[in-house]
Structures are given as C-alpha cells and as structure tokens.
C-alpha cells in the first residue's frame, strides 16, 4: 500500500482554479526526532475542561503504533484486508436481497409511518414497500411479554420457523419451565394494525406482515 | 498594616457578571482563569451539558456544580438511530435521576437524547423536583404513557413536555386527563410520536383551552383533521403547530371551519404533521403561510406540483423538511421563492427501491445552493451525484456549516465520469471553511480523506460509510481534523494501524464508532490497556471476542473518553477492554 503521497494533481477538468493537492500533513512528521509520527493535533489548546480540580497526571503517550514509511506490510495488501473485512463483517452487503442493516440512514420511526399512502401515483409508487421487516433494512422486531413492562427486540431474519422463534423467545424472557412455556402463545400485530395469533398463519405470511410480537398467556 | 485588594471584586459581583455568560464553552474558559473564579463559577452554573452520559458520573457532576437547574444528557451513539446499536446497549437515565433526586430538589429542566427512560424514572422525576418545568425526550425509549401520567399529575409548574421521535408505549390518551383542572402553565407540548388510536379529544381540548400560554402544540397522527379547527380555536396564540392526520372526506363545512381556525392564528410560524395529506385541504393553511419560517412536510406525500403551490405561499421560509417528491422542479421553485432558506432536508420517499421513483437528482441541490444565499444546513438523499455538481455547490455556498449527503446506493460513482466523488467532497471541505458536520456517501477513496484532513479544520462531526481504501484514509482524518469530536464509521476497510497511530487523538474526541470495519480484537485490547481514559467497548452479538483469534475483526467498536472507567451496566454482548492493571489505580481514583 502506498503510504507516501506522491500523487499527481488530479486531472479532473472540473477542478476549481487554484485547487491543489497539498502534501499530507503527516509527511512533515515522519522524520521527527522521536522517530515516530506523532499526531499533530490533540495536544495543547484543545484539551477539555477537567471536571475535578486536582492536578491531573497526563501520561505522555506515544502513538501505539509508529507510522513508518519504510516497510510496506503484508497486512496492507488491499486484497488481504478486504478478505478479512468481508468475511467477518456481520453487516453483510446485500445478503439474500434483504438489504443492509441501517442503510440508507433513515430513522426507524420514519419507516413506520409509511402506511396507507395517498399519493395518487399509479404504478410508480413503491412506497409502503415494507411488507416484510427485512425490506425495511431492519430485521429487528419488537417483542413484548404480557405483564412485562420492558420491550425487547429480536432479529427475525435469523429464524425460519415458529419453533426456532419460540425457542428464542422463551430464552429471552427466561421461561424455562416447559409447562409454563406451553401456556404462552405468540400474537403479532400486522401492518394494518390488527392483532392475530401466529399459530393461525403460515410462517411466510407471518414474517411478511409482521410488525411486532407479543407473548400472551393463553387459557387462564 | 492593610493589604490592599484593589483588584478583587466581591464574589457576588463576579457571579452577576458570569450570569450573562450562557455558553458552556465560555463558562469552561471562565472557570480556568484562576481558582477563585473556578469556585465562583461552579456554584453559579445553572445549565450542565453532558454529551456522553458515560463520560462522567452523576455524583461528579453534582459535586462540581451543586446548584444547577438544567441538565442535558446524551446516551447512545448516533448510529443507534439506524438500528446499528443492539437493544439493551445502555444509556439508562435512572441512575442520574436517582442521584439528582436527593441533591438537587430545585432541578427544573431535564433534556435527554437517545436514552432509556423508564416509567420508574419519570415517576421519580415527578416526585423529586417540586419546581420541575421542562422535560425534553429526544429519540428516547423505555417509557409508557403511565410515566407521562405521573408527570402530568404531579408537576404543577410544568411548562414543556416534548417527546420528539421517541418510542414510547402508548397505552391510550387518558394520561392527558391527569393534568389537574387547576393546571394552566403548559407552554409547549409535543406528542407527535405517540401512536395510540384511542384519543380523548375533550381532555385535549380542555387542556389546550385552559393553558393560555401554550405556544407549541404538536399532535400525533391519531388526531383527525376535523378536530383541529376546534383545537386551534382554543389556542389562537400558537406559534408552532403540528397537525395530526391531514385527511378527511371533502366537505365544505370541514374546510371552511379549518380555514377559519387557521386564519385566527396570527402568530403561527411553524407547521408540521400533515400525515396522509389530502391536497384539497392544503389551501386552508394559506392564510398563515406568509409568516411561516419553518415547515415540516416530511410525512406529507404530496406531488411536486402541490408542493410548489404550497411553497410559493411561503416566501419567508427558513427551514424546510420535505420528501423527495418535491423533485428538482420543486427545488428550483423553492430556490427562486425562498431566499431566506437556511436549512433544507430532503428525505427519500422510497429508500429501499432500486430504481428512482421521483425525478430528484443533484440538480435540485445545485439549484438551492445557488438561489438561497443563507443556506447553511443540508440533509439530502438522492440517487445520483457528480463531482461537477458538488464543486458548483461548494463554490455557491461556502457558508455551509452542515452538509449531509446520502447517495442511496452505496459506492455510487460520479454518474457523468464514473470516477469517485473525492474531488467533489474535497471541494466542499475546501470552500466551506466553517463546516462543522459532514456526512459522506458514494464511491470514495482515501483521497477524499486526505482532502478532509487537510481542509476540514472546523469539522466536529464526520459520518463515513462504505468508503476508503485502507488505514491511510482514517489516518488522514484523525491526524488532520483538529476540531473533530465525533467520528462514526461503518463498512469501511479501516484497520488497526490508523487507530493505534492516533490513540492520543481519541482522548480529545467525545467518541468514535466503527462497525463492520477491520479493527482486530488484538488492537482493541491494546488500545484499552494503554489508554486508561478511554472506554474501548467491543459490541459483538456473535459471542465473546476472545473466542475468536485476536486478529479477527470485531463487529462493532465504540470508543469514548471517560473519567470514570468502564461502566457497570453493560449487556452480555458488550465488552470493555480492560485497562492496564498498573494504571487501574489512576482510573479508580477518578471514579468519585
């Protein structure tokens, strides 16, 4: 990887006049006496107010890694980096067409409010796109348990059946006793705001219409 | 023999002088002049701002400022807004309320952002602060209308109850009736985020009717259009109003009622709401449009022609939030009509569609940047951009302070040249010398970060996604951006080197968020060990990071400076990298 900026001026014809690429500031520090590239910022005037008035011992820390021009590292091989990066990234790019988590960066409540659009546009209107939580870019669904004030959230996309969903919910709310487990039912609210029992619909239908889940006690 | 103290003022005089100094930064400077100024200032500081609730403990704040009346606290990182922070991460306000309850009986204002606020916390607020006046919950969660009922019932002097973008559990509207009949001090009420459909209009109307100082009222979607006229008639003095659902059958009596009610509101400056809007009812607000300075149409699914018609009645607009239905043509109209515009936010109507559903491109933004000389703050979602446009925008508007551009498809190149957008964003930072906040998108290489590090000297907050080639990019930012306080990064190939080379820089910032990057667990550990004044939190729902090799990248990383060491309320999927044991004494000493 090229650490030294011997870049030529950009040849983009739309550059404003006088727009020049300055040398990277860090170049100036490469040869400082300490042999390292100390950060040119962060000292001096930018220190925040201390909250207590005891004299603080400010440890003089060197950067934890010396930024050294001389030794290109194997780690810096961009291919390597990308392998490392993509294989363990959990926010995977376009996984199964389900979309990225949190992208585009639109607040969750804005997505919730896209119901019953009267835009008057015939086919072009792809609003109310959210027929599955996954399409919203967020696969997390709110879960409440009857009698419990705190709502939780689960990632619905990791489940493929009611069995696995139920198991996770039981664990989440610490319902260990089998007998007790059987006394709960999964109810869900669909996109129209209606509450339904999960057991009454096929899994596919369930996740397509699902808005939020509630664990309710059945029978007594 | 007398000692002449010719140059010292009595404390009361200094206190009086300091009372004119409101800004936190100035107050902090004042307190550093000398010990006696520090002492005087700390007793008379009335407003405290804590940008990260985990940077300091409530006890420390109270010890230093024993007489504050107003506190503002922020909890979760900004990316929590986009579901990147798992539930249960933290940001609980209760410990703060508990500490303040005993020590500050005269607390008047609590403003919280991205915190978990339980009903228990609300009840404790209601019980503990006899003169409580202002509660602002911004993007908070964890409470229900039961907690609101406690506030309503108990806080006789409440002036402001503002729930913006909160996720509260709405169990109905009866909490409104908990405001006693004798209660009349309400000045501002924002319940636009509450969801319930069970509305009690009589309670609302009575409340609005008896609170003659009411200036701000933002209703929620459940309030139908035909009820608004009545409400407005009870409060013609309103300055800011948010409608509910702006839809009804087309009936002349409803229309004339509504139009009449709006025309009686001579002070209205700000409108919002407009859910499910029916265009035929829009002209009802025309009587107030010429005075409007702020208009939030971001829920209004109006077509471009209706939007242009509406906007043409509002020449004094300073702030506009709108969906991309406005299209380039609407923005061109806006540019020619609204010359006072300072802030524009254009949201995507179909963020997850692959094809554009509206004709909104970079041209709209170019038009606005050209026609609105006071434009300072922009948030713009679009599907195509070019370096040429960005350079034009930068040259047109060097007074930008906030520039957030979101090109919806990640790594989208300049659509004209197919090149990265480095030069375009480079122009933005070069020309807009006062830029404080920047969000990047599109295809970007390390070069853009070089420009940012070189030019963005006043930049305080930077958001990066799907950009850069490697560590050099991050290094440019951390070593070049002198004013940087908040840096949030997702899905970029930034690894250990830049982070470790700039460890010291992290102590000068409020926080750094990195998710889906390439920072290894080993580097996190090293950083945590060597930097006692940083909390290095690894967030990983896959399980403990030490169950994987040290070179394995962590899923999410949140680093923030703190005076109080690791927090104690972490959920199972968050690990704080421990300090070096020999330095632990130092951090413990700071705990109290």
From TrEMBL, chain B:
The keyword Nucleus applies. Residues 9-50 form the F-box domain. The keyword Ribosomal protein does not apply. Pathway: Protein modification; protein ubiquitination. GO terms for biological process: auxin-activated signaling pathway; pollen maturation; SCF-dependent proteasomal ubiquitin-dependent protein catabolic process. It comes from the Eukaryota. InterPro entries: COI1_F-box, F-box_dom, Leu-rich_rpt, Leu-rich_rpt_Cys-con_subtyp, LRR_dom_sf, Transp_inhibit. One of its GO terms (cellular component) is SCF ubiquitin ligase complex. Pfam families: F-box_5, LRR_6, Transp_inhibit. GO terms for molecular function: auxin binding. Its main location: nucleus. SUPFAM superfamilies: RNI-like. It is found in: Nucleus. Keywords: Auxin signaling pathway, Developmental protein, Nucleus, Ubl conjugation pathway. Coiled coil: none annotated. This is Protein TRANSPORT INHIBITOR RESPONSE 1. It comes from Hibiscus syriacus.
